[in-house]
Amino acid sequence: MGKTAYLLFIKLYPLAARITALFNRKARLWIAGRKNVFANIHSSLQNDTRKKIWVHCSSLGEFEQGLPLMKELKKKYPFYCLVLTFFSPSGYENEKNNSVADRIFYMPMDSKKNAALFYETVKPVLVVFVKYEFWYYYLTEAKQRNIPLLLVSGIFRKSQPFFAWYGGFHRQMLQCFTHLFLQNEESLQLLKSIEIINTSVGGDTRFDRVLEIAETFKPITSIEEFCRNKKVIVAGSTWTDDDEALDHYVNSYKDYCFIIAPHDIGEDRLKECESLYHHSVRYSAIGTQIVEPEINTFIIDNIGTLKYLYKYADICYIGGGFGGDGVHNVLEAAVYNKPVVFGPEYEKYIEAVELLEKEGGFSVENALELEEIFNELIEDKDLYEYCAAAAGNYVRSKTGATAGVMQYIQEKRLLTS
User: Fold this and answer.
1) pLDDT tens, position by position, for the chain (417 residues)?
2) At 405, phi and psi to the nearest 5?
3) Domains (ranges, CATH) in the chain?
4) Residue 137: how many CA atoms within 13 Å on its side-chain side?
5) CA 69 → CA 149, 150, 271, 400, 406, distances in Å?
6) How many whole angstroms separate alpha carbon 370 and alpha carbon 365?
7) What does the radius of gyration of the chain's CA atoms come to, in whole angstroms?
């Protein structure tokens, strides 16, 4: 996609969102969140004289990834105002009241006019983009204004347009960054091949985040009572194809406990899960109705609980690998020293690839393989303990990315204490 195609994209995206909003709640939130967005930003910041740090996250996953850094920034530089933006409603709507940031907004759609107005209004002295999302005008505006611009936990693949013969426009975006903190050596070498050398391999701040979650875990009484003295399998971020791979096993092993957390908690998906899992109840119903003895499955119908539920598992299954967006966050489970199982679509996710290499995870092609590996892990204690330890050790060996970014900020004096 060259510049012409990009300009067409940023013009058509809001139009497509308006059309989609007629029947899609997420699109409606995207549209509503950007109504009067500049007026909201201006009124929120006009009397705030503090210097501003702007952190941008695409969605909820990137927020979790950037959270350790945001916490350290607030701790080290408490007199700065931390402004957080989201592109996606799934990020903004879930975290709009999070206290880690001083101000939280939707990012206005990229354009030359919007970017200039945003910088004039916010006046950031440091800009941080988490993992990805490359918005041309926001990036070039930072460079033109000589504002330090960092990419944190970036990861690149050869198939991306940056590395194609037609990728000159995309390479211009990368040239705007003051420094790019990358997850792996492969990304560094790819960027080096296009003469982007202001880089370093700093790892992934998600490792710091999941370790923090595990270390601050608080028991959930209703889950403890449900799981007591039983084998427990937690399936997180599942899509329909994941549930169809799981349902036979769940319905057959009635003496085990299953916790299913679908990626989408819309009413249609929850009803679909209820139809697939024959002995299930929604988590929100606990306490309002009697949980019958034959119930062996909780369906989680909220956002935010899942990252703690993996603690109760004997085995964790991570969804998305059977035709969703690709396998979701395996680290949230592995940090608790749990073997992790997921579907065949994982190659784009380095943490899933590395977890397989470290023998803390398993990829399955179908429901039959899923059943086989579940049973093998449950029946073979030595295998289970080996894989569980491998998963936990992998996560702990990769922490420290946040400290590396903070060290750079301090050494370069990008902010003043």
Assistant:
1) 688 999 999 999 999 999 999 999 899 999 999 999 999 999 999 999 999 999 999 999 899 999 999 999 999 999 999 999 999 998 999 999 999 999 999 999 999 999 999 999 999 999 999 998 899 999 999 999 999 999 999 999 999 999 999 999 999 999 999 999 999 999 999 999 999 999 999 999 999 999 999 999 999 999 999 999 999 999 999 999 999 999 999 999 999 999 999 999 989 999 999 999 999 999 998 866 667 888 999 999 998 899 999 999 999 999 999 976 789 999 999 999 999 999 999 998 999 999 999 999 999 999 999 999 999 999 999 999 999 999 999 999 999 999 999 999 999 999 987
2) -65, -45
3) 3-203+400-411 (3.40.50.11720), 218-397 (3.40.50.2000)
4) 16
5) 15, 12, 38, 11, 8
6) 8
7) 22
User: CA geometry: angle at 298 spanning 292 and 304, to 5°?
Assistant: 145
DSSP letters for 8-35: HHHHHHHHHHHHHTTT-HHHHHHHHHTT
Contact 51, 78 (CB under 8 A): no
Of the candidates 180, 133, 122, the residue with the CA atom closest to the CA atom of residue 153: 180
Q: Name the helix (H) or strand (E) containing 269.
A: helix 267-276
User: Which residues have a catalytic role annotated?
Assistant: 62
CA–CA gap between residue 321 and residue 342 (Å, rounded): 6
Question: pTM for this structure?
Answer: 0.89
Q: Contacts for 185-192 with beta carbons within 8 Å, 24 or more apart?
A: 186/156, 187/154, 187/155, 187/156, 190/156, 190/157, 190/158, 190/162, 190/163, 191/156, 191/162
Nearest CA to 245 out of 276, 221, 219 is that of 276
